[in-house]
Specification:
single chain, alpha+beta, Aspartate Aminotransferase, domain 1, 4 helices
Amino acid sequence: MDIEEAREYALSMKGVTESLFGGDSWVSFSVEGKWFMLLQLDAPEPRVAVKLLPETGASLREQYAGVVAAYHMNKQHWNDLYLEQLSDDFVKNCICDSYHLIISRLNKKLRAKYNGDNL
């Protein structure tokens, strides 16, 4: 998977928006204003950062060399996925988990907009 495929996958989910920040070197992907994925455009090796439950992130970092604590983010919650080292399905599952984690933390009214979606 390359960064464009990761971008397209994230944007295919309901309610996702993207925006540039950090001098146009980063792209954030959010739902209801809450980040679930970050993409560094000028990274030496293609990667995305996703937010996961702390125990999930820690477990994945132990199992996969391509999963590390995220650069310049809260390392308990954010994890960098090195795209060339991981399968497409693995990356998609992590992006989806991150998206659903953010959805689960929205207030009841906002969460209701996303209930029943099979993403």
